[in-house]
Here is the input.
Amino acid sequence: MSTPATANETAIIKTSYGEITIGFWPEVAPKTVENFKKLAREGFYDGTAFHRIIKGFMVQGGCPNTKAGVGGMPGTGGPGYQIKAEFNAKAHVRGVISMARSANPDSAGSQFFICHGDARFLDKQYTAFGQLIAGDDVLERLATVPTKNGGGGEKSTPIERIAVESIRIVPAA
Here is the structure.
């Protein structure tokens, strides 16, 4: 049974660089919040990595292909299903967490990104579903990890593995 999205819970993203705490916006993206919490509770994100980093823009994670021993191109994996977009008026600014997707607006599944800078050009085109409430120093460290070309012409692949050790859903402090 899925737990309804509530604002009185937060996500603690434990990375190899420290912890980030995310507060949710179920009032604008209830199904997205519920999906993220469900995947976190199932341990889906545990052992993944941030696979795409663009300083001043965002850090992206949530791809199961980044787990050790799993095949597949990082950035192309998901939970085996897609969720409907919940575009809203929340601004994509530093600390906002939003769902990554392909060209199809309803193609998000598990991958998410946290804005490192102002990304308002994404507003109402990507589903923003929460924001950082603690760990801005960790976001800064993640976003400034040196990157290399990962093969797609974009210099956004971190030169070292940045682990997502776990994402835990806990009562809000």
In short: The longest strand covers residues 162-171. Residues 11-171 form a domain with the Cyclophilin fold (CATH 2.40.100.10). Residues 1-5 have pLDDT under 50 and may be disordered.
